[in-house]
Amino acid sequence: MDATVDLSDLALTIDSLLEGDLDRPWCVHRLYEALLPLVGAARREDMLSATQRASDDLVAIGKARREYVSAIAIGVHCEDALYWSARSEHQRLEEFGPEFEPPAVLRRLAAHFQCRGL
């Protein structure tokens, strides 16, 4: 890691989460839920965005890997990013096993939806 890179506290916490589970990628929502008790009350959408930006910072400096997933192919408008530690033996999302291959991962992604009424 470049010594001039100043990671946010949020990115450092996410790095610890990724390092703690090398055998399973973390979607933005899973990271958000793990961080919620640590960061306190914040608007959900703001915190999801901050979580993704901090995770992307880790990717930018080579501490994490990322792959985007879109459920549009199964008729659901939902996209997410999955992150895992660069120390993991897995280079691609599908290497984590059948639950991270289409269509299983797309169905799980669609399960992120929360009904907010009309």
Short description:
With 118 residues, the chain is α+β, with helices and mostly antiparallel strands.
Secondary structure blueprint with pairings:
Layout: H1 9-20, E1 26-27, H2 28-39, H3 44-60, E2 64-70, E3 79-85, H4 104-110
Antiparallel strand pairs: 1-3, 2-3
Helix pairs in contact: 1-3, 2-3
Report on the architecture of this protein.
- The chain has 118 residues and is α+β, with helices and mostly antiparallel strands.
- The protein has a single domain (9-110), classed as Orthogonal Bundle (Arc Repressor Mutant, subunit A).
- Helices cover 41% and strands 14% of the residues.
- It contains 4 helices and 3 strands.
- A 3-stranded antiparallel sheet has the order 1-3-2.
- A hairpin with an 8-residue loop joins strand 2 (64-70) and strand 3.
- Helix 2 packs across helix 3 (44-60).
- The protein is globular.
- The mean pLDDT is 83.
